[in-house]
Amino acid sequence: MDPAIKPATRTFEDATPLLAAPEELRREAEKKGYLFFKHFFTREEVIELRGQMLNVLQEEGLLDPAAPLLDGIGNQPLIDGMTVEELNWNGIGTTQQVYHKIQKLESFHAVAHHPKLLGLFDTLFGERTFPHPRNIARIMLPSDKLNVTPPHQDFLHIQGSYKTWTCWAPVGDVPKALGGLSVLEGSHDTGLLGVTANPGAGGLESILCGLGYEWAETDYEAGDILIFHSLTVHKALANTIPGRVRLSLDLRFQPASQPIENASLLPHGPFEWDELYEGWTREELQYYWKKEQFTFLPFNEEIRWQKDKIC
Which UniProt keywords apply (predicted)? Predict the structure, then answer.
């Protein structure tokens, strides 16, 4: 059976004990291509951000006014009236207007600079970490019109350094039924895979036939994080809980000495940093990359369509 549709046979193991054993942590990361940390952030930290993000949806009328804010229950009549184009804009699960307000949240961008998170990646990389400013939020409204994110490798979209890792963090409890993230354990060892077009986020689906790897996943709780290599194949599960919004973050990190592609320093979306920064209080979160001495690599469109690697 194609691993793209084969059900998961592995459950994540908590890598928290490895934080005290750097060499073991790096060996496990090299072996699996990902690490999972249970309750890495405090629940209170995550719920505070969740409230701010859901407040944006509430202001736009996208939440059920009769339900508690933190439950994240969608205003289904309004959502059902939205077009496929509105819901699938830029692969983030909601409209450009909503996403613009999310991108303006200082607290959203501050997560990538959390000292504990930077310390984790310093340990993994064995050197100083650079957090990409191009942070992504997924605000997946409850709708059958939404395209589920297909199996893919982040490197095709990020490029720059292969040593870039993603941190996927649920903003609230995300059981598998709500559409959490699943990873193909060990798939980073395959190198770049061939792709085919897919209407989900990113527009590309990795071709997985014959790889023989196994999917791994879990029921996430607020504060959990999953980190994975830029070549590790991963996908979103379908949201099968009626009415519930799913919130999550995609944050990316690399060794500071590694090359980078210029778009990783731009906002995610057709926005400008000066405008997004309006009202921020923490200057250290703004334009911090300008003091770096990067080697820039151009984006290579050709590697996104490697026909010779299609099985």
Answer: Dioxygenase, Oxidoreductase
